[in-house]
Amino acid sequence: MLQKIPERMKGKAIGFFGAGRVGGALLFHCLRSGYRISGIYDVNQRRLRNIARKLKVRTARKPEEVVLESDVLFFTVPDREITRVYQQVKSKIRPGTVLVHCAGAFGSELFAGAEELGLETLALHPVQTFVSDEQAVRSLPGSYFALDGSAAGLRFGRSLVRALRGRGVVIKGEYRPLYHALCVFSSNFLNALFYAAEQIGRKIDLAPADTRRILKPLARVTLENILNYGACASLTGPVRRADERTIRIHLRMLKRHLPEAVPVYRTLTSWLRQMLRAEEEKRRGEKKEG
């Protein structure tokens, strides 16, 4: 159940540039939480018509139409387009308007010159992954959000996050590329690892769907253990056991059957060894202090 927005926020009119997965999900939940939607613009007219029909919101034929009636503007376009769209409309934006983008690797610096124009800023990145419009709507509530911006922008962001039953953490602009890399390690690289597992599965006559089904219990428990006990404490397998013979056999078979996976295997094995060394050094330091 979404929370209702505070009374002081109810009069704010919110406009959207972009009706993709993130923009559409935010639009849906802003409506359900009680925000007033001033309009939405998207270069994809078919997508725009679909979301307007589903959510009964006003669409705009030009970006300027959204700007003129909005107290908050969401730039939920592809990251590379945020600055271009902002530059296109910024001369029409009223002072005091809150400008919002959802790019993970960037902060409020994408809205260059906003402060001089009397505009407020907010970077609002959901720590979540979206593969479809429907899944985005389901998964957005309860997520964490990385925030950056002006004082008024952050107040609006925190209010919206509370309405979404989420939690916000402030990540300043200079650290956002590193924060976004953290998200890539925790999400996108899992896709790469499972792709490698699927390719290995093919070599032993397993279809990708079968490989995923077989690995699902293992992957789920591994992730649960990591979240409950930490990456080091939950590690099992040949590196933890210092089983160099098994590692050599793995590498020999990969060279023969899937050579492109060898560099990945070597790199990750090196990282696991480094992780265990750091764990051991920490343990020794704690013993000395004790």
Automatic annotation (TrEMBL):
Gene3D superfamilies from the entry? NAD(P)-binding Rossmann-like Domain, ProC-like, C-terminal domain
Pfam families recorded: DUF2520 (PF10728), Rossmann-like (PF10727)
Matching entries from SUPFAM superfamilies are given as: 6-phosphogluconate dehydrogenase C-terminal domain-like (SSF48179), NAD(P)-binding Rossmann-fold domains (SSF51735)
Which superkingdom? Bacteria
The segment(s) forming the DUF2520 domain are 144-269
Ranges for domain Putative oxidoreductase/dehydrogenase Rossmann-like: 13-126
**Protein name stated in the entry:** DUF2520 domain-containing protein
Q: Which organism is it from?
A: candidate division WOR-3 bacterium
